[in-house]
Amino acid sequence: MRLGSVMASDKELPEKTRNKLLRRVDWRFLSLNPWPLTSVCYAGGLLKEAVELVSGRTLAPGEASSGTCDLAVAINPDKATLGSAWNALRPGGSCYTEWYSPLVGGPKGIRRNLVTAGFEEVSCYWPWPWPSRASSQFWLPIEAPNALRYFLANRPKPASPGRYLLRLMLWTIWQLSRWANLALPLCVLARKMESKIEIAAPTGLNNEQTAYGESSKDFKSYLAATLKSGRLGPEDTSIAPSTARSFSCLLLTGGRRSINKVVGLVFTDEEEQPRLVIKMPRVPEAVSALRREAAALQAVQLQRLEGISGIPQVIFCKEYAGLLLLGETALTGLPLFTQLTAANYRELALKATDWLAGLAGKQPSRPLESWWNRLVAPVLVDFEAGFGSVIDQARLAETMQILSTLGPLPLVCEQRDFSPWNIMIAPDGNLVVLDWESAEIEGLPAMDLIYFQTYLSFFLDGAMESGRYRESYRALLDPVTRTGRVFK
Q: Do residues 207 and 232 share a domain?
């Protein structure tokens, strides 16, 4: 697939460098063509290096022949640069521009410049932090007020009244600057007008994949049809039909490593909540994790668990022009760790326990020999290989001996990342559980609960900031402490 061929050499880069370069071009996921075969770049510095990393080849402006490029990139382009970019692009190709001057006239002025140059489907985004200064964490569709309202309403509450007032003041200033067409920078994507000329598909793509211009168009049509009909996913999966005329995407590009996925929240023009979530891999290594998540969620869906909510449903898992797209129902809420207090610690711990019990259901016990070699033995081997040189061998042998005495156990669905940062509290108070890429459908009981309780205590004790994990964990194992009384 094109994803692997374009980025075959980038693994040789140090992770810090690779991550920095890839995040400089996260906007490419908004174009549905994050791996362009041929790009033309009118910018320099880090942006140019990043475009070169994700493109099959990158041309200088004077090298690009008419209609040969999939992507054109420029910063503060003038009329001549926009005309050159339009000429270099093939039909369906994308133009990405960054605008840092207030003199351009905001979204309306930029749109006018791009349309005059011949572009269509112009979309304006406000990123933060500024992409020229740091890796952006989110990309807000500035002309979609419902997406902006949703984003503001679902931001974690500041830890103190002072920080809350500061955020409120900054957001008010930003809103005023947006109304005055002074919100900067603006990152804008546009497309060259389609042609009736058939575009040959690049080699190396499978039957589901087509040339860039066509695949982008086809996916947008597919997505629009999904939103309108609600039934283009698996037969047992549906979303409420929509009469929306258009949709927008709020892009989330957080995480600290290059392997972290990119997440798009899709909004229709008539709703205040996202209709669905689209997850995309930033690097080839992340593809298998998304496929595992799709398989795990579909397996959970087939179990049709009674009385348990908060699990995303898979709408589609498809490839378009070499990009895997995992579409899921959008479940909203606030991250659990941002709502945690000493007063509600026990309540949240019990709520999570009940949720996991519902996920497990009533399963028959299985003999040790039916699951040991799959679930326990490989973990012990990996642990010894990774830490054998720094741990007490007698303790390790004792641990293995204790584990070998386990009797028959019921095998349950292990989420395997059931943590306070992957759990949200929905508006109705119920739990929403995200990120199922590590899930094991027939896993060991109690593992998710122990993992959750451990990290919940880390957050409550402040160990996530102070690094005092040992002290927090010892307190958790002591039945007379605040966290120990709940854990026991």
A: yes
Q: Write down the pLDDT at residue 219.
A: 65
Spatial separation of the C-alpha atoms in residues 432 and 444, rounded to whole Å: 21
Q: Which domain holds residue 114?
A: 2-154+161-329
Kindly state the tokens that stand for 81. Answer: 């640069």
Distance between first and last Cα of the chain: 50
371 in a structural domain = no
Q: Which of 229, 270, 231, 226 is nearest to 248 (CA)?
A: 270
Domain count, the chain: 3
Identify the residue with better confidence: 272 or 233.
272
In a domain, 42, yes or no: yes
Could you tell me if 208 and 261 lie in one domain? yes
Sheet of 323-329, strands arranged across: 57-59, 38-41, 69-75, 89-99, 186-192, 119-128, 138-141, 247-252, 262-268, 276-280, 323-329, 314-320
List, for residues 300-336, the tens digit of each pLDDT value. 988 877 778 899 999 888 887 678 899 999 998 889 9
Phi, psi of 434 (to 5 degrees): -110, 170
d(CA 45, CA 236): 49
Tell me which residue of 367, 251, 353, 358 sits closest to 304, measured CA to CA.
Answer: 358
Residues 390, 351: one domain?
A: no
Cβ neighbours, 10 Å, residue 328: 25
Statement to judge: residues 178 and 55 lie in one domain: yes
Same domain, 142 and 184: yes
R_g of the chain computed on alpha carbons: 25
